[in-house]
Amino acid sequence: MRELITMKFTSASDKCKMGSSSIGILIPCQFTSTESSVSSGTCSQQNLTPWDRKKCLSVKCKLPYNFCKAKSFSTMTKVSEGILLGIGNPLLDISIDGDEQLLNRYGLLSNNAVLATPEQHQIFHDIVKNYKPTFIAGGATQNSIRVAQWLLQVKNATTFLGAVGDDKFKDILEKYARGVGVNVQYQVIKGEKTGVCAAIIVGLDRSLITELGAAQKFSFDFLKKPENWALVEKAKFFYIGGFLLTVSPDSVLYVSQYCSSVKKTLVMNLHATFLCDIFADQKLGLLQHIDILFGNGDEAQALAKAIGLKSVTIKDIAVEVASLPKVNSDRPRIVIFTQGKDPTYIATEGKVQEMPVDPIDPSLIKDTNGCGDAFVGGFLSQLVQGKPLSECLRCGRYAAKVVIQHFGCTFDERPDFV
Predict the structure, then answer these.
(1) Residue-level pLDDT at 368
(2) Element counts in the chain: helices (H) and strands (E)
(3) For residues 273 and 118, is the Cβ–Cβ distance under 8 A?
(4) Statement: residue 68 has pLDDT above 80
(5) DSSP state of 14
(6) Measured between alpha carbons, how far is residue 277 from residues 104, 157, 253, 308, 400 in Å?
(7) CA distance 40 to 63
(8) Is the distance from CB of 330 to CB of 344 less than 8 angstroms?
(9) Alpha carbons 342 and 340: distance in angstroms, whole number
(10) Which pLDDT does position 146 carry in this prediction?
(11) Is 389 in contact with 50 (CB distance < 8 Å)?
């Protein structure tokens, strides 16, 4: 029997425990309420998706709508092909064990991150030819989609759209993305270079150099092509990274409006503090279409400032952002703010849950880059299966813990999440 998962709420009366065996045995909810229509305190609905509150017989229960629901935790739930679609900026991540001579040759510093100048472009070809590179189909959004695909273990359950150049790096990028089962449909930009990020490891230090290249050229016209829009219509869940707002805001807004109109699920990530002004732009009106919003503590504070919220703490900001108006009012917004080693806050319907970060032996940590992307990917893999919010979060924590024990956003051949 799996250990009970304890949820911590801001109110002591809102505490419940939920658990399940692998065959879906319901653990009685520890929360009791005189207003609940279930006198035993046990949730009468085991098979509810995160937004099926209307189906619950316990309509007077004061708990957040899905914190007390349980169902089978099997990761083998059958999902349809193309159920999850991601749109973002793809980058080929190249990692090598380098040396000071290489850093000096290209004017790089250890433990630093820079955008490549034209004079530094040759480094990407140099490290592929003269070192032993490890390739990863990267970029924050594509990382999350790969992790979700890895956990789903159903070929082409996920689709990814983004722009690449017409070069050998495009071929490598596509090979490694398709290798895990993602249906990648890249917009190939003639005359442009595929976006690349090189990680040069010297001892315990890491120097990052990035060339965004064609990733900045994704276009609305490509999205509207019949064969690509068919993929949009096929998907039921969407994950769009905030970075795409500086590349193709028309694409982001069009898909977000589409999701609201047909009541599909839109998940977005703030991704950077400088992007929060765009999210807060009332003329653009993006926030009103977002069903689930991810971000970190710094981004949360930047968003609150941009919107003009009164809240100061991350916890209160999460509650206030979750309560902002939505076009699709049938589905309450969920806001998830991570804080590195500090607790994650999950807010919805005026309630906020505090989730501590799982401890890990420091000796097992190899690379923290990609952990946030992995957390989102794990979450998405359960969301598309209709699992409760608690399971989405648990799988997100699992994925982050796996990735932190690898270099880059990589993982074992098969997951063991149960």
Answers:
(1) 67
(2) 12, 17
(3) no
(4) no
(5) G
(6) 38, 33, 15, 11, 28
(7) 15
(8) no
(9) 5
(10) 93
(11) yes
The set of residues, in sequence order, having a beta carbon less than 8 Å from that of 352 and lying 6+ positions away, is 9, 10, 315, 318, 319, 345, 346
Active site residue ranges = 373
Q: How far apart are CA 137 and CA 176, in angstroms?
A: 6
In which residue are the tokens 């952990």 written? 371
Q: Exposed e or buried b for every residue in 110-146, given b needs 16+ CB within 10 A? A: eeeeeebeeebbebbebbbeebebebbbbbbbbbbbb
Q: Tell me how crowded residue 416 is: count the other CB atoms within 10 A of its CB.
A: 8
Among 56, 46, 131, 67, smallest CA distance to 96 is for 131
Indicate the pairing of strand 237-241 with strand 205-211. Answer: unpaired
Average pLDDT over residues 40-48: 41
* Residues 141-171 pLDDT 10s: 999 999 999 999 999 999 999 999 999 999 9
Lowest mean pLDDT of 64-68, 75-79, 392-396, name the range. 64-68
- What share of the chain has pLDDT > 90, as a percent? 64
Three-state DSSP string of 113-141: EEECCHHHCHHHHHHHHHCCCEEEEECHH
The single residue listed with the structure tokens 């900045």 is 216
* Residue from 10, 30, 14, 27 nearest 388 by CA: 27
**265-269 and 292-296 strand pairing:** parallel
User: For 190-249, how does the pLDDT look when each residue is reduced to its tens digit (9 = 90+)?
Assistant: 999 999 999 898 886 778 899 999 999 999 999 999 999 999 999 999 999 999 999 999
User: How far is the C-alpha of 412 from the C-alpha of 373, rounded, in Å?
Assistant: 16
| Alpha-carbon span 400 to 380, nearest angstrom | 13
Residue-level length of the chain: 418
Residue 354: its H or E element: strand 351-355
Which amino acid is residue 305, in one-letter code?
K
| Tokens 């490509």 -> residue | 222
Share of the chain above pLDDT 70, in %: 81
**Quick check: helix, strand or coil at residue 355?**
strand
